[in-house]
Amino acid sequence: MERANHSVVSEFILLGLSKSQTLQILFFLGFSVVYAGIVLGNLLILVTVIFDSRLHTPMYFLLINLSCIDMSLASFATPKMIVDFLRKQKTIFWWGCYSQMFFMHLLGGSEMMLLVAMAIDRYVAICKPLHYMTIMSPRVLIWLLLSSYTVGFVHSSSQMAFMLNLPFCGPNVVDSFFCDLPLVIKLACKDTYLLQLLVIADSGLLSLVCFLLLLVSYTVIIYSVRHRAASGLAKAFSTLSAHITVVTLFFAPCVFIYVWPFSTYSVDKIFSVFYTIFTPLLNPIIYTLRNQEVKAAMKKIRTRHINSKHTL
Question: Which parts of the chain span the membrane according to its record (predicted)?
Answer without folding.
Answer: 25-47, 59-78, 98-120, 140-158, 204-225, 237-258, 270-289
